[in-house]
UniProtKB/TrEMBL annotation, chain A:
This is succinate dehydrogenase. Gene3D superfamilies: 3.10.20.30, Alpha-helical ferredoxin (1.10.1060.10). Its cofactor is [4Fe-4S] cluster; [2Fe-2S] cluster; [3Fe-4S] cluster. It is an enzyme of class 1 (oxidoreductase). It holds the Pfam family Fer4_10. PANTHER family: SUCCINATE DEHYDROGENASE [UBIQUINONE] IRON-SULFUR SUBUNIT, MITOCHONDRIAL (PTHR11921:SF29), SUCCINATE DEHYDROGENASE IRON-SULFUR PROTEIN (PTHR11921). The keyword 4Fe-4S applies. It comes from Deinococcus phoenicis. Its EC number is 1.3.5.1. Keywords: 2Fe-2S, 3Fe-4S, 4Fe-4S, Iron, Iron-sulfur, Metal-binding, Oxidoreductase, Tricarboxylic acid cycle. GO terms for molecular function: 2 iron, 2 sulfur cluster binding; 3 iron, 4 sulfur cluster binding; 4 iron, 4 sulfur cluster binding; electron transfer activity; metal ion binding; succinate dehydrogenase (quinone) activity. PROSITE patterns: 2FE2S_FER_2, 4FE4S_FER_1. Pathway: Carbohydrate metabolism; tricarboxylic acid cycle. Residues 20-111 form the 2Fe-2S ferredoxin-type domain.
From TrEMBL, chain B:
PROSITE patterns: FRD_SDH_FAD_BINDING. The keyword DNA-binding does not apply. This is Succinate dehydrogenase flavoprotein subunit. GO terms for molecular function: electron transfer activity; flavin adenine dinucleotide binding; succinate dehydrogenase (quinone) activity. One of its GO terms (biological process) is anaerobic respiration. It comes from Deinococcus phoenicis. The active site is at R282 (proton acceptor). Signal peptide: none annotated. Belongs to the FAD-dependent oxidoreductase 2 family. FRD/SDH subfamily.
Length: 252, 583
């Protein structure tokens, strides 16, 4: 290891740097019986992403640090983490918004899914819930030679719910999901909404039936955690309420 | 662990998911393996749209699209591929809509279309609305929709499996070897046909729009077999990445009327492309921006960016049709496109080159038409070559759909009549060796440091403008980095989820891609499309209207052999003769 470390990603001369202590909840199943905190001092720019900071830890301080990441700008949904006690994407959170110079940020895995190693959790139960809502377009009538028509207003009804990137920030911030893992959770309801409110889709009754089961929308207690956690600004609680109304009146 | 499928798809972005869907329709067993979860693939980062001559907003024809694609590619585009593409993409976009893709709509309820760089009516007369879009998250919607359709079809996925080797025996592909991140186990996948669709290698550059995972793994593995990579000197720099970060800002913002301005506030593209101005193809706009910066008209602290100006557009257009980039500019730069000028600079974006294939996706083993039996490739990984020397905006999404589908169809057709090829004894031997060498390496070199040096040097020496001396220097730098890579250390001994091991392995793949790209660029003594040689400023059709094929010399370390392949200068019914490229 070199004595002096290169500065993180977008550091440049003449830019104010800040010092932060990055406190990360570590767990290695091959040697730890339980999770423990490790703190890494890092010098970084105020405008750096938290992802830049933890990449810096991995690349230059402790290469065993494990987490998922890919696109680095909030579209792939890989790097959901609990940062300063709130679910966020590490690549969409700027250091200056979560720390002061000389301060500390805490980074933990998202809650309610089994921790496999450090910040990396088992995503299979999350995707099982996703698959349970029939997350695919259904219209068995023969398609026209060109597109099926849909008005801009009809398209607008699913503009929010189709924006979901399946990062799990919402579901793993939901207190009901923490207590009862069989609850399909906010992300799956958002996905169901995307099809229920699609004027072209023909499987609304089946989907409403899934939403009406005891693992569905009625578990929601409108805690609003999901809405606050969503890195895509999807009004999730409102969407869940729309699905509840659709279930009640059996129509979208 | 040993698995067996008729058709195996590597990669779960747009091309891989389309290939998997279509292979399954061919009544064969199919599995798709990805080093990510499918929905994390970088197709999701595409923003502006998918080009198809639907004519929903203005008159359009496939011939115009074909012409634009060929001219955009600076006549290195294979015209048979361009003709198939321009026709097939029309019906393929309707198919995406039938799969439920939530496109933005015209007032009549049709798929909405907007202008995009290099897409014109009547063979170059003026910009035309050809890009079919879903706000500015078209790639996201394509990725989600294709994943949904694969869930519906019951496709088998192996997520977080890193391919470490391709098994090719006597010119016939027999399967792949992969490392399972969760367990640390090596799996072999025996297959009648394999489709490679694992994306590009943009991470060899410092400033890039590419995901951290785009490290050219499969291109490198192909190249390590002594098989060729085609046209690696053609690498696209997207003109507008967020300053310093490289995060993509869609060309759709210029399609909607956004204007590039220099430090003087001048709309400088008027000087470089008088007819279509800000909607010139990407290679031209990127060069124009760098020229402005070099001549002292850049903006920002380091004067290394220019501004994109949307402030004259209505708030509803910006926050509605361009919601994604509005959020990105606000989040990362604290600049609000509704009232602020946004600082942008060119960012490494897309490999025109890659694994050479015929129009059905079947891989070429040389420049003379010899195939690798049972091996297919599609998407950015492949070079069909639709994009020639410069890809037009929106044609990457189209490429994934049209050629991903073709690869799926033809791989399934082949697999239906083929027997399982005989696997060599101990197919995982080389992979086990590579991984244990990396894991047991006690070297002092840090892969992050080597990677950073590679990224910075590639940016400086094989960037938008290139010249012989810089690239000769880069050849030496890559040799030195490869030497140090042999001595790289992996300190994490764990078996499960060893991401340090993965990053070290990916660095090896990146070094190969950089080596092939640099050698190809140094060899081509002309300027064409995205390849701009300061020491050879003119296009030279006499000597260079041909594809480059770069081979790793298996008998001599760090040596690259260069061959060539003919350009298809005619389509099936149309042909466009090379002409000077002005816009």
């Amino acid at each position: 290891m070199p004595e002096t470390y290169p500065a993180p990603a977008n550091a440049a001369e003449g830019v104010a740097m800040m010092r932060v202590n990055v406190k990360i909840l570590r767990f290695d199943p091959e040697k730890d019986r339980k999770a423990h905190w490790e703190t890494y001092p890092v010098e970084a720019q105020a405008g750096d992403r938290v992802l830049d900071v933890i990449n810096h830890v991995k690349w230059y301080l402790d290469p065993s640090l494990t987490f998922r990441r890919s696109c680095g700008h909030g579209i792939c949904g890989s790097d959901a983490m609990l940062i300063n006690g709130r679910n966020r994407l590490a690549c969409k959170t700027l250091l200056r918004d979560v720390a002061k110079d000389g301060g500390t940020i805490t980074v933990e895995p998202i809650r309610g899914l089994k921790v496999e190693k450090d910040l990396l959790v088992d995503m299979e139960p999350f995707f099982d819930s996703y698959r349970a809502i029939m997350p695919y377009f259904i219209n068995e009538s023969p398609p026209p030679p060109a597109e099926r028509l849909q008005s801009p207003e009809q398209a607008d009804r699913m503009a929010h719910s189709s924006n979901c990137i399946l990062c799990a920030c919402c579901t793993t911030s939901c207190p009901i999901f923490w207590v009862n893992g069989s609850y399909l959770g906010p992300a799956s309801i958002v996905q169901a909404h995307r099809f229920i409110f699609d004027s072209r889709d023909q499987a609304t009754p089946q989907r409403l039936n899934i939403m009406n089961q005891n693992t569905g929308v009625w578990r929601c207690r409108t805690a609003y955690n999901c809405t606050e956690a969503c890195p895509r600004d999807i009004p999730i609680t409102t969407i869940i309420e729309e699905v509840k109304r659709a279930v009640m009146y059996q129509q979208a | 662990m040993h698995h067996r499928y008729d058709v195996l798809v590597v990669g779960a972005g747009g091309a891989g998911l389309m290939a998997a869907l279509y292979a399954a329709k061919g009544n064969v067993s199919v599995a798709c393996i990805s080093k990510l979860y499918p929905t994390r693939s970088h197709t999701g980062a595409a923003q502006g749209g998918i080009g198809a001559a639907l004519g929903n907003v203005a008159e359009d024809h496939w011939e115009w699209h074909m012409f634009d694609t060929v001219k955009g590619g600076d006549y290195l585009t294979d015209q048979d591929a361009a003709e198939i593409f321009s026709k097939d993409i029309i019906e393929a976009v309707y198919e995406l809509e039938h799969m439920g893709l939530p496109f933005s709509r015209t007032p009549e309820g049709k798929i909405a279309q907007r202008k995009f760089g290099g897409h014109t009516r009547e063979f170059g007369k003026a910009a035309v609305e050809r890009s079919c879009y879903a706000q500015d998250r078209t790639g996201h919607m394509i990725l989600q929709t294709l994943y949904q359709q694969n869930v519906k079809a019951g496709t088998t996925f192996y997520n977080e499996f890193h391919v470490t080797d391709l098994i090719i025996e006597n010119g016939r592909c027999c399967g792949v070897v992969a490392y399972h991140l969760a367990s640390g186990e090596i799996h072999t996948f025996h297959a009648k046909a394999v489709i490679l669709a694992a994306g590009g290698y943009g991470r060899v550059y410092k400033i890039t729009s590419n995901a951290l995972t785009l490290t050219g793994d499969l291109m490198s593995i192909y190249y390590r077999k002594g098989l060729p990579l085609e046209d690696m000197e053609f690498y696209q720099f997207h003109p507008t990445g967020l300053a310093k970060l490289g995060i993509l800002v869609t060309e759709g913002i210029r399609g909607e009327g956004g204007i590039l301005r220099n430090a003087d506030g001048e709309r400088f593209m008027e000087r470089y492309a008088p007819t279509i101005k800000d909607l010139a193809p990407r290679d031209i706009v990127s060069r124009s921006i760098i020229t402005e910066i070099r001549e002292g008209r850049g903006v920002g602290r380091d004067k290394d960016a220019v501004h994109i100006d949307l402030t004259h557009l209505p708030r509803e257009v910006i926050e509605g049709k361009l919601a994604e980039i509005t959020d990105l500019a606000r989040t990362y730069l604290g600049q609000d496109p509704v009232k602020d000028l946004v600082a942008v600079q060119p960012t490494a974006h897309y490999a025109m080159g890659g694994i050479p294939t015929d129009i059905n996706g079947l891989c070429f083993a040389d420049g003379n038409g010899t195939n690798v039996e049972g091996l297919y490739a599609a998407g950015e990984q492949a070079c069909v070559s639709l994009h020639g020397a410069n890809r037009l905006g929106t044609n990457s999404l189209g490429d994934l759909i049209v050629f991903g589908r073709r690869a799926g169809i033809f791989a399934a057709e082949y697999a239906r009549q083929a027997a399982y090829p005989e696997m060599p004894e101990n197919p995982e031997r080389d992979s086990v060796e590579m991984l244990s060498r990396l894991k047991n390496a006690s070297g002092k070199d840090n892969s992050a440091v080597i990677r950073k040096e590679l990224q910075e040097s590639m940016m400086n020496n094989v960037g938008i403008f290139r010249n012989g001396p810089d690239m000769e220097k880069q050849v030496e730098i890559i040799k030195e980095l490869k030497d140090r890579y042999k001595n790289v250390g992996v300190s994490d001994p764990s078996i499960r989820y060893n991401s340090e091991l993965i990053e070290a392995m990916e660095l090896g793949f990146m070094l190969d891609c950089a080596e092939a790209a640099t050698a190809s660029a140094l060899n081509r003594q002309e300027s064409r499309g995205a390849h701009d040689r300061e020491d050879y400023p003119e296009r030279d059709d006499q000597n260079w209207l041909k594809h480059t094929m770069a081979y790793k010399d298996l008998n001599q370390n760090d040596h690259v052999l260069i061959g060539y392949k003919e350009v298809a200068l005619k389509g099936y019914t149309r042909a466009f003769e090379p002409k000077p490229r002005v816009y």
